[in-house]
Amino acid sequence: MGLLNWLKSEKAAPPASPAPAQPRPSSSYMRGERSPTFMGWQPALREPAAEVRDSWQMAAARSLDAAQNSGFIAGAIDQAVANTVGNGLRLNARPDADAFGLTTKEAGDLGRRIETAFQLYSDSAIDVDAEARKTHGHLQASAFRHWLGTGEIFAGLPFFVRKGGAWATKVRLVPASRVAPRSDGTGKLVHGVRLDTYGAAMGYLFRSGSVDRIFGTETEIPARDRFGRPVVVHCFDGLPGAVRGISPLTPVLRVTRQFDQLADATLTAAIIQAVFAATIEGDAPTQDMLRALQTPQEAAKGDVAPMDAWMDATAGWYDNTKIDLGLAGKFVHLYPGQKLNFHEAKLTGGNYEPFAKFLLREVARCLGQTFESVAADWNGTTYTGARIATTEIHAVTLYRRKNILTPFCQATYEAWLEEAIDLGRVKWPGGMAAFLANRPAACKAIWRGTSKPVADDLKTAKAHEIWARLGVMTDEMIANELGVDIEDVYEQRQREMQMRREYGLPDPTFAGLAKDSGSDPADDQDAEAA
After folding, report:
1. What is the mean pLDDT of residues 350-362?
2. Strand, coil or helix: 281
3. How crowded is the C-beta side of 406, counted as CA atoms within 13 Å?
4. How far apart are CA 96 and CA 104, in angstroms?
5. What is the dihedral of CA 383, 389, 392, 396, to 10 degrees?
6. Which residues are CB-neighbours of 290 under 8 A, at least 6 positions away?
7. CA of 86: how far to CAs of 81, 370, 400, in Å?
8. Which residue in 232, 233, 234, 230 sits closest to 219, CA to CA?
9. Which position has the higher pLDDT, 142 or 338?
């Protein structure tokens, strides 16, 4: 019985509840995966080539549309082209002296002869442009503008002599939309680009006659000919694995639409605010008041609308009532039982300008421009702030010159130099055979653009002078910052020196480092602003 009673008591007792599970400690990335912040954010991880292929057409169309229909975007693109391209990147030929058995002086003299001949070629639209419209500098600007809209530069290098021209090497810019967006699924043809085993571009599939897939004729053109001469120029910037580029405006396309919508909404609200409405209030209900205005004869007819009767009654009232808007500026009594109310729309919120500036800042970052330049608003900007901003943005400009424009210019230069050597217009040591055997060393060059914008030329000149006196900055380094070639500077100074002697003019005197006369007013302004 004792055992039976014990079993009954155990059966009736409720089971013990388990202890609550304690969350396991974690140190992984994105620990808040279950939070609302991450739950709706589940992007797919794909190859960059696939991402660009699926988004390129719409991104390019929207970017070009924004550039054509937004004043801020169009102006910012113009400024980006002016800062990056300017009048065109200039060639500084640097053939490798050791590769061809030349002394440093001989290589320098050869480079200057090449630069002179190429300058004549690049300044002739008949020679350099297949369409005979633009110089090489103008072609660079058009190519970079197209890159901002599509993320790519495509150009062909046809070879033919035009009447009146001296060179056969031509440049023809091709819209990126002419490249057929086809892939074969094997990785050999990706988004219109034929790749080799290692992913290098071997050819491009172009559509001629029409950009439409059905009516356009597709033609595959090799990237280089059998001698290594470039045939198709393709310049873009992208992640590893990408074979095509995409517009740098793509991340801010939504922002550009938001800016337009903000401007339209603000304008609509301002127009509505300028319009007012007037209502007449009465003590009686509307229908009763209108029917009360009818005469017995009108009520008997039944064909006179109450509103018409009311309008006739009020018109008769005001025909016999004078409204004085003269010096007194007053109204007489309205119709009995009426009150005139004016209703004005109220525009709530005064944060249009701060929010618009916030949107423009994001656009400016993608375009590689300062906010002040894009918005044309330098209000409140100090000298130090302007100097830091231009220094940071100029680094973006240099990057784009090096990786976007330089390959375009270098391909043109390589094709032209091969022709110049073949025609004997440039005397190359070892002839064409030596050039083809070591093309990279022969075509070694630097492409220079305009100098970095400075907020204060005097302060920049003082800084250069101090660095030069300390021996940590050479004349060439200073010339590079100013966007000029030191050899051109020295040659020009030598010519000017000879001209001064011929005309009996004294040589200019170069003042030493100016003594520090105290604080600079600009520095004082920055200190006050801080």
Report:
1. 78
2. strand
3. 17
4. 9
5. -130
6. 306, 307, 309, 310
7. 7, 17, 13
8. 232
9. 142
- In the predicted model, is pLDDT for residue 369 greater than 90? no
Residue 341 has which token pair?
Answer: 């109310």
All residues at 6 or more sequence positions from 112 whose CB lies less than 8 Å from its CB, including other chains: 93, 487
Q: How far apart are CA 482 and CA 474, in angstroms?
A: 13
CB atoms within 10 A of CB 47: 14
Q: Between helices 136-150 and 104-122, what is the axis angle to 10°?
A: 80
Terminal-residue alpha carbon distance, the chain: 93
Quick check: 234 and 223 in contact, CB under 8 A? Answer: yes
Amino acid at 386: A
Residues 6+ apart with CB under 8 A from 238: 48, 52, 151, 244, 245, 246
Burial of 52 (0-12, 13-18, 19+ CB in 10 A): buried
The answer to whether the CB of 342 falls within 8 A of the CB of 276 is yes
Number of alpha carbons in the 13 Å side-chain half-sphere of residue 90: 18
Q: Which helix (H) or strand (E) holds 420?
A: helix 406-423
Note whether 172 and 131 are within 8 A (CB): yes
**Residue 200: CB partners within 8 Å, gap ≥ 6?**
none
Residue 126 has pLDDT above 90, yes or no: yes
The predicted model gives 341-368 an average pLDDT of 73
CB distance 128 to 157 below 8 Å: no
Q: How far apart are CA 374 and CA 217, in angstroms?
A: 41
What value does the mean pLDDT take over residues 300-312? 62
Tell me the sheet residues that pair with 320. none
Q: Which residues of 146-175 are buried (b: 16+ CB within 10 A; e: fewer)?
A: bbbbbbbbbbbbeeeeeeebebbbbbebbe
Hey, what's the torsion of the CAs at 71, 75, 81, 84, to 10 degrees?
-130
> Quick check: 60 and 176 in contact, CB under 8 A?
yes
Say how far apart CA 474 and CA 471 lie, in whole Å.
7
Place of tokens 């793509």: 250
Separate counts of helices (H) and strands (E) for the chain: 21, 11
Strand runs (DSSP E) across 298-431, as ranges? 338-344
d(CA 516, CA 116): 43
Structure tokens at 461: 């000149």
Strand partners, 172: 156
Question: Is 367 in contact with 249 (CB distance < 8 Å)?
Answer: yes
- Among residues 235, 129, 131, the alpha carbon closest in space to that of 176 is found at 235
C-alpha pair distances (Å), 331 with each of 6, 318, 321, 339, 428: 102, 11, 10, 12, 98
**Ordered DSSP codes for 7-31:** HHHHHHSPPPPPPPPPPPP---S-T
DSSP state of 189: E
Instruction: Indicate the domain borders of the chain.
Output: 48-250+395-448, 276-344, 456-505
The answer, yes or no, to whether residue 70 has pLDDT greater than 90, is no
